[in-house]
Amino acid sequence: MQGRVQRALITGASSGIGEAFAHHLADRGVELVLVARREDRLRALAGTLQVATEVVPADLTDDADLGRVEARLAAAHAPIDLLVNNAGYGAYGAFADLGANRQVGMVELNTIALLRCARAVLPGLVARGTGGIINVGSVAGAQPDPFAATYGATKAFVSSFSQAVHEEVRAEGVTVMLLAPGLTTTEFAEVSDLHAPSGAARVAMSADEVVAAALRDFARGRAVSVPGSGNRLVVAAAGVSPDGITRRVSGWMHRRMSA
Ligand SMILES: NC(=O)c1ccc[n+]([C@@H]2O[C@H](COP(=O)([O-])OP(=O)(O)OC[C@H]3O[C@@H](n4cnc5c(N)ncnc54)[C@H](OP(=O)(O)O)[C@@H]3O)[C@@H](O)[C@H]2O)c1
Predict the structure, then answer these.
(1) CA distance 112 to 61
(2) Distance CA 259, CA 255 (A)
(3) Residues with CB under 6 A from ligand 1
(4) Which of 92, 147, 151, 218 is catalytic?
């Protein structure tokens, strides 16, 4: 663990990758603040953990709810020294067919709420010279994603933003890390209308595997964590292939996934 992490706040802790972070961090003795909309799920999770746990039900696209989470992140009492900025969803399909509100809500959750949470916690981290932020992006942020255009754009934001802020604060003893998972078995596919072809589903990682890799990389002070060698290959290929080829391959894949 980078620095001494005593207390973490996890957004989107009611399922999937966020819930796995809660289990892994609790196993390391880290106290937790769990954030998501489904309070019943958060309370049930808290009941299974052997560490002090606060439950903060919040819709992070609601300004008042987000303000309460920001206040908790900035509080001097029982300070947060790890923020896992994880809440997010996608939408698969042609941009012109997907509802505008669904896509704007995605931008608000995946980028604005993530930015505001990071901004709320970072001054305290820098002042104390310890801890950090894990921002959950995606391999989808490594290239344009036709048929998941808005989702890919939100994750490109998370990638650029996280790596830039990493560089700003790394000399202060604070680690800001981009976590860019590939296909992971969670509720994401159902929420996001993603229909992975059977071959893709076979290579999906578990949330446990993703979080174990992420916490290893965070402890090493890495700027970027891409769990799984197949996912690292996808990101590397996107970085070196001509843009036109990357766009076409990405579009071909996502059209099949949005069918
Ligand atoms: N699964 C994948 O294949 C995959 C791949 C790459 C990246 N990711 C990223 O991983 C992150 C976690 O997703 P997941 O796979 O674990 O999916 P998930 O199981 O659907 O979990 C999403 C979490 O976000 C929370 N959430 C959604 N809308 C919210 C809102 N308005 N306010 C507060 N919380 C909200 C959900 O809780 P409530 O519904 O209770 O609010 C839930 O806890 C996301 O950022 C996603 O983009 C996932």
Answers:
(1) 8
(2) 6
(3) 11-18, 36-38, 41, 58-61, 86-90, 109, 136, 138, 181, 183-184, 186-188, 191
(4) 151
**151 with 192: CB under 8 angstroms?**
yes
Residue 238 phi, psi dihedral angles, 5° rounding = -65, -30
Residue 177 dihedral angles phi and psi, to the nearest 5°: -125, 135
Closest CA to 9 of 27, 28, 29, 35: 35
Instruction: Give the SS3 label for residue 175.
Output: strand
123-126: long-range contacts (C-beta < 8 A, 24 or more apart)? 123/74, 124/73, 124/74, 124/76, 124/79, 124/80, 125/81, 125/169, 125/172, 125/174, 126/169, 126/172, 126/174
Query: Catalytic site residue 89?
Result: no
Provide the 10 A C-beta neighbour count for residue 49.
Answer: 17
pTM for this prediction? 0.97
Using the 8-state DSSP alphabet, how is residue 56 labeled?
E
Instruction: Give the chain's domains with CATH numbers.
Output: 7-257 (3.40.50.720)
Nearest to 148 by CA among 87, 179, 106: 106
pLDDT digits (tens, 9 = 90+) for 204-252: 999 999 999 999 999 999 999 999 999 999 999 999 999 999 999 999 9
pLDDT at 202: 80
Give me ligand 1 centre to Cα 244, in Å: 30
Q: How far does residue 189's CA lie from ligand 1's centre (Å)?
A: 10
